[in-house]
Amino acid sequence: MKRFITFGIALPAFFAFVMWACSSDNNNENLTTDTFSPTPYQIPEAKYFPKNLNIPIDNPMTVEGVELGRFLFYDGRLSGNTSKDLLMSCATCHIQENGFEVGMSHPKFINGKTFGLPSEKFPEGQPTPNYMLPLVNAVYNHNGYFWNGFIHESNDFRGNEELNIPSENDFHFKNIESVVWMSITSPHEMNSTIEKSVAAIDAIPMYKKKFKSAFGTEEVTYDRISKAIAQYVRSIVSHNSKFHKYLRQEAELTVQEKRGHDLFFSEDADCFHCHGGSVLMTTNEYFNNAKDITFDLEDRDRHSISGDAMDIGAYRAPSLINIEITAPYMHDGRFKSLDEIIGFYSEGLVYSDYVHPLMKNVRQQGVQLNDEDKDALKAFLLTLTDHELINNPQYSCPPEIKGWSGQ
Amino acid sequence: MKSINIISIFFCVSIIVASCGKNDDHEKDIPAGKLILNFEHFANGNELAFDEMKYTNTAGNKYEITEIQWFVSDVTLNKNNGSQQVLDGEKFAHYIDTNIPETNRWMVADEIPTGEYTSISMTFGIKGEKNAPLMYTDPPESDMLWPINLGGDQGGYHYMKLNGFWMNKDNQREPFNFHLGVGQERDVDNNITGFIQNWFEVDLPFSAFSISANETKLVSIRMNVEKWWDQPNIYNHDDIGGKIMQNQRAMHMGIENGKSVFSIGTINSVKE
Question: Pairing state of beta strands B84-86 and B160-167?
Fold first, then answer.
């Protein structure tokens, strides 16, 4: 179970910014470097949160880049379509009020099951293979994105002929930049082409100025679209749940919440070994958490990436921040409520040869909580909702995009 | 008067600058070498094989190891005259993770003055006064968190997580977490009434070495895993079960056994 941790050295924003200014992208003839001076964007510091940020050296965050990214994140024309019936944006599924997940009450994606824009083969849209992961605090994660960690800093797939990968920037599968264009072209998401999507954005007059402010040029490219949206996604940080305020001694937990906290952070409920190593409420590691006896080797589990037999059936432990509003749960969305998931860990575990040893209660089918403990644990989990995040206008749909968001 | 004052200031500054320069030169003149600590994990005299149910402890439990994550701190070099050098130039504690091979090697930042050293000692885990909750903000160290409700304000991190499986009395493969950290004192109702520091110091046998100017010494420190369950306490997974963070009796057995777990592998001069 070798971890694909890269010992990233923290890249201070200023250093990254200077390097970026010297990078090849800025050598584009269209750049007017004499007037191009975007404002560096600082991820707000918060007590106990990681200092080592996952910001690629060739895409330092700027105020203008984040703002452009927000517009593009909410713009359904990114799917290459202009018909309002066929719009899909990142925000179609990543909904702020649901902690940037689709949630259970979406009128189209029933019970959180998403699918792509229609195609000839899939007139109703191709189902997305896995359910969603939280799109929050990604800037703190160095251990890969997606349920299996496929997107990782150690990758470089550019020019891989076997996989038919182009050789240009951002086809590296290293970071969020790659996730953006993957979402644009994936048949189970926007189902577009890069050319079509770039043309659709390029045709919208207001973006000329925004690209100029963010990148020093009006030219719309997939590379700049990816970079801008990645910047916006990295800006989505959650520091202000009641639990985080409790840690900072800015809030008190109720007696029941505190009891739930102590269960969570002990071997009685034993959530913290996978979900509580840091204030992120996840280790970002991969675990077979004892929910299945048999496994399909075609699944997109951790084993499909690492090749390690011990990773069969293993998926990322997602952050529990906002867990109240991010149902359904697990990579396959099998649990629809907190009660179901607490019940699973209490008495629903099943043994397989691939179970992670941290699931040490598997032979007892779980941690065996009584009803009072379950209620307390649930009360604590509800303290992980960051109401400030989900109501923050900084992350919301710009008025200029309303009607085009595909939401 | 003004010119006298300016001359006086210039004179004083000159002396300060000159004396600073002398100190720098003096420090540079102290002959020193470098030290690399290499951490190895062995079982029954051979390199530990992970994820193989091939070992049997003294209690008769068959077992396998999946991963080991642990802290060593306050590594100290001892001289015959009683003087000691604590390796804390860059950090006082080093994290070792068998899932992250790079962590097995610690390039110590401290300059090691030349001479003969009679032994190396170290702390397994982190001493209470240095083990502050949430002092590590970034993984992987932050993932070693030992909850404050189980460790108080001097028990912020696990000393070690050693995870694996054993064949239980029903001949079923069952997970165990041999996790060591701060223990709890409890009353008859199992309420926590205090905390017990379980870190311990290790004097590594046969760890004498010498170092000369500009030499780099590589010292291999070996964890002999089977000894965690061997002596003086025979540790039986069937009796104790798969979790011990809230079982001070089991952790105490572990730390008593732990004092004989570590040994020196090799000490060599290397080119870096």
Answer: unpaired
